[in-house]
Specification:
There is one protein chain. With 102 residues, the chain is mainly alpha-helical. Helices cover 68% and strands 10% of the residues. It has one domain.
Length: 102
């Protein structure tokens, strides 16, 4: 979980633990930039209780950052680690069988 505050707002980014902190904070910075480009801080403060229409921008930005190379590398590393784990477990399971036949 990564957070940032600005003008009384808390920006929150929930991500997998493998996501580099720089990517999460770059996402939060871009989110703030786009929010403040569309709305001024006073408008946000006045409308906060009623909500503001920023969903499409957040969805687009989230999709963009989910395709970020650092995110993809993390997913690839996790997949590789899962394969190594599976192979290790398989090898450990077959080793006693080999030793018992010798």
């Amino acid at each position: 979980m990564h957070t940032d505050t600005s003008d009384g707002l808390v920006f929150l980014c929930l991500s997998e633990a493998t996501l580099k902190m720089e990517v999460a904070y770059a996402f939060l910075d871009e989110l703030k930039t786009q929010l403040y480009r569309k709305f001024n801080p006073q408008f946000i403060a006045d409308r906060l209780a009623y909500g503001i229409n920023f969903t499409s921008e957040m969805k687009t930005l989230t999709e963009e950052y989910n395709r970020h190379p650092a995110v993809n590398v993390s997913k690839e590393i996790l997949a590789d680690l899962a394969q190594v784990k599976d192979l290790t477990v398989d090898n450990l399971c077959t080793t006693p069988q080999r030793n018992s036949h010798e």
